[in-house]
Design goal:
Length: about 70
């Protein structure tokens, strides 16, 4: 049981270390945004964040129903 716990903690520690390489090694380094709206490729394909899509849909429905 202890052996599995230690292996799990080691795997998590390695994952955190690899994810933070940019922050640790670069002066003023930051994590890149993982949000869809910040991805240029998805923007070029016309893919938006679900929150933005929902907002657009609600605004288009309100403009139709309000006369």
């Amino acid at each position: 049981m202890v052996k599995i716990f230690l292996v799990s903690v080691l795997i998590i520690a390695i994952a955190v270390a690899l994810l933070s390489v940019r922050v640790i090694l670069l002066k003023g380094g930051t994590m890149k945004s993982q949000h869809i709206k910040d991805n240029e490729y998805l923007k070029s394909k016309g893919i938006h964040c679900v929150l933005d899509q929902d907002r657009e849909e609600r605004s288009s429905r309100q403009s139709v129903t309000v006369e």
